[in-house]
Amino acid sequence: MSKEMLTAIFSCVFLGSVLISSVSQILLKKSADKTYDSRIREYLNPLVIIAYGMFFCSMLITMYCYRFVDVSAGPILESAGYIFVAVLGAIFLKERFTKKKVIGMLVLFCGIALFSLGGYLPFFNK
C-alpha cells in the first residue's frame, strides 16, 4: 500500500478518534447535569467511567495514527472536534446554534479545507 493511501486511511481513523473524544465530552456533560447523593458518586458513575475510557482509547488511537499522519496535520484534524461537539450538543443536549457558533464552525471548516487543499496532507498533493 502506498504512503499516500496509508496517510489517507489513518487521517480518517484520526478523525474517528476525534469523534470518539467528542462523544465522551457529551457523556461527561450529560453526567454533570445530574445531581448525585455523594461526591464520590459524581465521579464513579457509569457515564463518567465510560467517558474517560473513551478518552483513553481515543488517545491511544491518535498516538498510533501519528505513525502515518504528519505531525503538522494533527492539530488541523483535531480541530474538527469543535465542530463534532457543537453538532452532538445540538442533537443530544438540545443546545442551540447561535450566530457566533455557526460562524466559528464555518471558520474552522474553511481552515481545515484550506489546509487540506494547500498540499500539507500528502494525499491532496496531486
Could you describe the 3D structure shown?
This protein is an all-alpha fold and 126 residues long. The protein has one domain. The protein is built from 6 helices and no strands. It has helices at 3-32, 39-43, 46-65, 74-78, 80-92, 99-117. Helix 1 (3-32) packs antiparallel against helix 3 (46-65) and helix 1 (3-32) packs across helix 5. The longest helix is centred in the first third of the chain and has 30 residues, at 3-32. The chain is flat. The model has no long low-confidence stretch (mean pLDDT 90).
Lay out the secondary structure.
Elements: H1 3-32, H2 39-43, H3 46-65, H4 74-78, H5 80-92, H6 99-117
Please name the defining characteristics of this protein.
mainly alpha; 126 residues
From the N-terminal CA to the C-terminal CA, the straight-line distance is 17 Å
Query: What proportion of the residues is helical, as a percent range?
Result: over 70%
Q: What gross morphology would you assign?
A: flat
Total separate domains = 1
Task: Provide a count of the helices.
Answer: 6
Give unreliable regions as ranges.
none
- What's the order of the H and E elements? HHHHHH
**Whole-number average pLDDT?**
90
Most strands sheet: none
The chain-level structural class is mainly alpha
Strand content: under 5%
Q: How many strands appear in the DSSP assignment? A: 0
Rg, Å, rounded: 17 Å
